């Protein structure tokens, strides 16, 4: 049974990872691409920290830099959540605290990128949050914790 649960988690993670890029990326890469990414530290299903990297040569290198930063802070379980290959744009990170339907307190993050505007990056962050935190509803609210132009 544990093997089936682990296989399901791997499949779910893979699907969510690919879905995050449809919410995180704002446009098709062009000749002047770069790498930006958000990585989340989790414990027992709860998001406990976030790290981001901007201006790396590729998204993969941005993910690695953000993962290394979280590992250096002592976090063991870290997962990429969103990325962008836009050389310039906006990154918005949102945070929410809410109670699940089972009564557990949760903290979750959303990360969005956009080459067009800060507002579009925030909308992408909401979509990203929703993709990873199924129990979160917009009426529960969120707080913008980072709004950066890069």
Notes on the protein architecture:
By secondary structure, this protein is an alpha+beta fold. It has one domain (2-149). It contains 3 helices and 6 strands; from the N terminus they run αββαβββαβ. The protein has helices at residues 2-24, 59-72, 118-132, and strands spanning 35-43, 46-56, 78-84, 90-99, 105-114, 143-149. It has a 3-stranded antiparallel sheet. Strands 5-4-6 form a 3-stranded antiparallel sheet. α1 (2-24) runs antiparallel to α3. The longest helix is centred in the first third of the chain and has 23 residues, at 2-24. The model is unreliable at 2-31 (pLDDT under 50).
Question: What's the arrangement of secondary structure elements?
Answer:
Layout: H1 2-24, E1 35-43, E2 46-56, H2 59-72, E3 78-84, E4 90-99, E5 105-114, H3 118-132, E6 143-149
Antiparallel strand pairs: 1-2, 1-3, 4-5, 4-6
Helix pairs in contact: 1-3
């Amino acid at each position: 049974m544990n093997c089936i649960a682990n296989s399901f988690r791997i499949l779910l993670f893979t699907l969510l990872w690919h879905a995050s890029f449809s919410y995180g990326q704002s446009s098709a890469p062009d000749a002047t691409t770069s790498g930006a990414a958000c990585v989340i530290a989790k414990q027992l299903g709860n998001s406990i920290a976030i790290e981001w990297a901007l201006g790396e040569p590729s998204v993969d290198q941005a993910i690695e830099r953000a993962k290394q930063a979280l590992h250096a802070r002592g976090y063991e379980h870290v997962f990429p959540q969103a990325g962008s290959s836009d050389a310039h744009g906006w990154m918005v990170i949102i945070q929410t605290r809410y109670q699940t339907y089972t009564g557990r307190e949760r903290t979750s993050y959303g990360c969005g990128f956009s080459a067009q505007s800060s507002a579009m990056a925030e909308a992408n962050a909401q979509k990203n949050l929703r993709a990873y935190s199924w129990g979160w509803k917009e009426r529960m609210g969120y707080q913008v914790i980072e709004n950066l132009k890069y």
